[in-house]
TrEMBL record:
GO terms for molecular function: G-protein beta-subunit binding. One of its GO terms (cellular component) is heterotrimeric G-protein complex. It comes from Podarcis muralis (Wall lizard). It is a lipid-anchor. It is found in: Cell membrane. PANTHER family: GUANINE NUCLEOTIDE-BINDING PROTEIN GAMMA SUBUNIT (PTHR13809). This is Guanine nucleotide-binding protein subunit gamma. G proteins are composed of 3 units; alpha, beta and gamma. Guanine nucleotide-binding proteins (G proteins) are involved as a modulator or transducer in various transmembrane signaling systems. The beta and gamma chains are required for the GTPase activity, for replacement of GDP by GTP, and for G protein-effector interaction. Interacts with beta-1 and beta-2, but not with beta-3. PROSITE patterns: G_PROTEIN_GAMMA. Transmembrane segments: none annotated. One of its GO terms (biological process) is G protein-coupled receptor signaling pathway.
Length: 68
């Protein structure tokens, strides 16, 4: 029984390795350049860089209501 489970484990491992071998890969330098280009193109939409308009900020402090 142990050899059957070991065999099926090895077969699954071989199938996984075949799948991983078929994955298209690119150079790290190319991926970094593409990531940098994407970040530069979308910087104007990044709330961490340009801020959030006060009217659409769901995390702004609630206004207090005072009755005189």
């Amino acid at each position: 029984m142990s050899s059957n489970s070991s065999l099926s484990t090895m077969q699954r491992l071989v199938e996984q390795l075949k799948l991983e071998a078929g994955v298209e890969r690119i150079r790290v330098s190319q991926a970094a350049a593409e990531l940098q280009q994407y970040c530069m193109q979308n910087a104007c939409k990044d709330a961490l860089l340009v801020g959030v308009p006060a009217g659409s900020n769901p995390f702004r402090e609630p206004r207090s209501c005072a009755l005189l």
